[in-house]
């Protein structure tokens, strides 16, 4: 499955190690993470080598190509909000938003209050908990991915 994994480039990257582990877990389950570069130490510098329009066109192409959107949103940024909002508003794709419980007060209420039927919010206390939650919804069962029944279609 092709996954767009959202993680801040310009915001608070305090959850970088957790996000890295989440990406590695998705890959170990056999998924292709289109945005793997976002968990690299030099993600901001690498994106700045491209023109803003190139980043926009690349990311919009990946958002349209992905089968599901997952994001670590503890260090919320305008980019992640835009990405999640686009996927929820313009597609029927599933969205999973993970955040540290301790960061909840700093995260936009548009994220933590999201009740869209295709969106699932997952709060976690530790990196291990985040990875376990991610694996539980992305592992494939005999009848397809676990998340297929997690969220009802509109």
Topology record:
Elements: E1 2-7, H1 16-28, E2 32-33, H2 43-48, H3 52-65, E3 68-72, H4 78-90, E4 94-100, H5 109-112, E5 119-124, H6 127-138, E6 140-141, E7 144-145
Parallel strand pairs: 1-2, 1-3, 3-4, 4-5
Antiparallel strand pairs: 6-7
Helix pairs in contact: 1-6
Briefly say what this structure is.
The protein has 154 residues and is of the alpha/beta class. The chain has helices at 16-28, 43-48, 52-65, 78-90, 109-112, 127-138, and strands spanning 2-7, 32-33, 68-72, 94-100, 119-124, 140-141, 144-145. The two termini are 22 Å apart.
Model description:
The chain has one domain (2-149): Rossmann fold (3-Layer(aba) Sandwich). By secondary structure, it is of the alpha/beta class. Helix content is 40%, strand content 19%. Helix 1 runs parallel beside helix 6 (127-138). The mean pLDDT is 90. It is built from six helices and seven strands.
Overall outline: globular
**Estimated structural class:** alpha/beta
CATH architecture: 3-Layer(aba) Sandwich
Strand content: 15-25%
Q: Could you tell me the mean pLDDT?
A: 90
Distance between the termini: 22 Å
**How many structural units, i.e. domains?**
1
The total of beta strands comes to: 7
The major pleated sheet works out as: 5 strands, parallel
CATH topology group = Rossmann fold
Strand arrangement within the widest β-sheet reads 2-1-3-4-5
Question: Low-confidence parts lasting 5 or more residues at pLDDT below 50?
Answer: none
Q: Please state the CA-atom Rg, rounded to the nearest Å.
A: 14 Å
